[in-house]
Amino acid sequence: MIVDLSEITDPEIHEFVAYWSSVKGEAFAPTWKQFNLPRLNPKLVPYVIVADAVYDPSGREVIDFVIRFWGTGQTEWKGADKTGKRTRDFPQFRGPEGWEEYLRVLQEKRPIVSRDTVYREQYGKRVNIEQIQVRAPLSDDGIHVTKVATFGCWSKV
User: pTM for the full model?
Assistant: First the structure.
């Protein structure tokens, strides 16, 4: 479920958004090079995902996202490493919500925050988790969203 950033009290979510904002300057989004994961607080990096937007041949419509970076903390909490995988190939942790969040970032060209439950039974994990995450656009051409950076944090439900 999409929520307003002001509803989130987790300081790490706000730190991630502040970093993204600081490196974007006047642009709607930073480039991948400007985003520069090694400059992000090292405590946050394991919980980051960066996905490349894959556009159709006309360049007008996104048809998928491919995971460029999947932090080790994501693997620890979710039970799977998605590096190099297409988002359309994922087992559904959350249903269509993740895909819709990616598309909303592309359309609105701003960070989107969500809170929901991740169902982990399919990976042999007995306890589901509440997930709060923020997805933020990256743009290598200053016009289109070419990547989406996500930061997540969790608690057991």
Answer: 0.90
**pLDDT given for residue 124 in this prediction:** 61
Query: What string of H, E and C letters represents the secondary structure of the chain?
Result: CEECHHHCCCHHHHHHHHHHHHHHCCCCCCCHHHHCHHHCCCCCHHHEEEEEEEECCCCCCEEEEEEEEECHHHHHHHCCCCCCCEHHHCCCCCCCHHHHHHHHHHHHCCCEEEEEEECCHHHCCCCCEEEEEEEEEECCCCCCCCEEEEEEEEEEC
Please report the pLDDT score of residue 86 as a whole number. Answer: 85
**98 and 116 Cβ atoms separated by less than 8 Å:** no
Longest CA pairwise span in the chain (Å): 45
CB 117 within 8 A of CB 130: yes
Q: What's the CA dihedral at 32, 87, 118, 125 to 10 degrees?
A: -110
Q: Considering the domain 2-156 in this protein, what is its CATH number?
A: 3.30.450.20
Tell me the mean pLDDT in the region 69-75.
Answer: 92
In whole angstroms, give the CA distance from residue 139 to residue 86: 19
